[in-house]
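$ ./design --mode recover --in tokens.txt
reading tokens...
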């Protein structure tokens, strides 16, 4: 049996779709991609309510309409003027897209960036270890869009000016860093409980495949399990186990749809005691058996 590719939505997939690689709306290479108009793309890149793991980092700027999306378990509604910097290996799931949604987006492999260390998409933004999503002030929207326009215009040249694009992308990232710093300085600061919740969600996204004990996450955060339970419930109206279970289901869905692993192998991968336990858990959480989910279009 031919082995499927890893559970990732990346530039390789975009290149294999039945679309023109370099036309008036998109430009795609093995380590850099640019979509100049989402609304004019003729190929559907993802299915609703289906999680995907992004292989490369993304920079997206919403021009019009809105996108309701789940990013690493948390739901966001991205509206006009929103800039999003998404790190590699982030899990995204589209919930709802307005018919008039239009956005500009870049996909950037770590190795494309002209920086010394390529281990992290945001290695040059050390104070922002997670994804960045915020609405740009009106005057900054014009500046950011000018970056996209300049990069797109240079991509139209007959010869790919790789180094020029690399440094323009790096400059764009630094500019977004400056805007984010100023925006955060004037915005409402997170409460202590909100900070705990964000750190907790980050831990869940990292460890949920193996760690499902409340004490594990409490120890990581230097809190008592009881206090952590209280904070998470008050902040999100969900329990610690609710979030852990949602993370496990995301991983299960990705493996069921985008890998050649059999159900019993996925059960092992997600550290269930046996396949029967995994199947019952999956059906309780989704209303479908793993096999039914695999066949769902």
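writing sequence...
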């Amino acid at each position: 049996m031919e082995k499927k590719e890893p559970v990732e939505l990346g530039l390789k997939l975009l290149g294999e779709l039945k679309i023109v690689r370099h036309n008036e709306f998109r430009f795609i290479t093995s380590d850099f991609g640019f979509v100049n108009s989402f609304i004019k793309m003729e190929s559907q890149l993802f299915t609703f309510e289906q999680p995907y793991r992004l292989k490369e980092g993304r920079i997206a700027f919403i021009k019009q309409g809105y996108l309701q999306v789940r990013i690493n378990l948390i739901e966001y509604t991205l509206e006009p003027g929103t800039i999003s910097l998404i790190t590699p290996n982030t899990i995204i799931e589209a919930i709802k897209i307005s018919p008039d949604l239009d956005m500009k987006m870049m996909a950037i492999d770590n190795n494309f960036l002209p920086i010394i260390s390529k281990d992290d998409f945001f290695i040059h933004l050390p104070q922002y270890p997670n994804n960045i999503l915020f609405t740009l002030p009106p005057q900054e929207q014009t500046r950011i869009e000018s970056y996209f326009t300049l990069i797109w215009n240079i991509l139209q040249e007959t010869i790919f000016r790789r180094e020029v694009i690399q440094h323009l992308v790096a400059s764009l990232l630094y500019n977004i860093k400056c805007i984010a710093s100023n925006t955060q300085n004037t915005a409402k600061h997170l409460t202590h409980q909100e900070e705990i919740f964000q750190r907790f969600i980050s831990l869940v996204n990292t460890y949920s495949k193996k760690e499902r004990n409340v004490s594990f996450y409490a120890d990581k955060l230097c809190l008592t399990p009881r206090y952590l339970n209280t904070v998470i419930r008050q902040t999100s109206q969900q329990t610690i186990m609710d979030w852990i279970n949602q993370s496990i289901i995301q991983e299960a869905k990705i493996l069921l749809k985008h890998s050649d692993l059999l159900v019993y192998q996925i059960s092992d991968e997600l550290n269930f005691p046996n396949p029967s336990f995994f199947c019952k858990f999956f059906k309780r959480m989704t209303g479908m058996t793993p096999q039914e989910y695999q066949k769902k279009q």
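exit 0
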